[in-house]
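Hey L., structure's done. Input below.
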Amino acid sequence: MRMLDCYGNSDMREQFVLGVPGMHCEYDENGKGYRLPIDMQHQENLFFHPDETLASIESTEESLGMIRSEDTAWAVDQSLDNLRRMADYGKAIAGDGIPNSIYSDYPDIQNRTLYAEYASKIITGEYPIEKFDEFVEKWYASGGEVVTERAREWYAKMK
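Output:
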């Protein structure tokens, strides 16, 4: 969970992306961090590789900006350009996806609050796996049957 907190915390992202100073990264005289070349003989594995696992465009821009160098500039710039333009192509290929209207009047399902609570607590062991049945009951009580029916109707139309 600490790792996820670091990843989601913009104040900690630089350390998370660049790694351990002296092992994975160095800082120049202006305080700008940069990645050192990979040296498997002397470095511990870096947990997070922003060039391999990406999230939002904003966090990806920030993360890739930290590892951008003369050697990686073209690849970083191309990756960011691809990300910015991807949504246009995704919609053309995949359609608009399931409409938000199926969730109207059911904010706990739309914003995934109930799911996030139970999933994180089951994963961390705070809740036993048997609590999943309780989640399902609460999900249906929060409008799950209506949302499921709306989703099925939408899917049938799109088929």
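Residues 91-95 have pLDDT under 50 and may be disordered. The two ends are 39 Å apart (CA to CA).

-- N.
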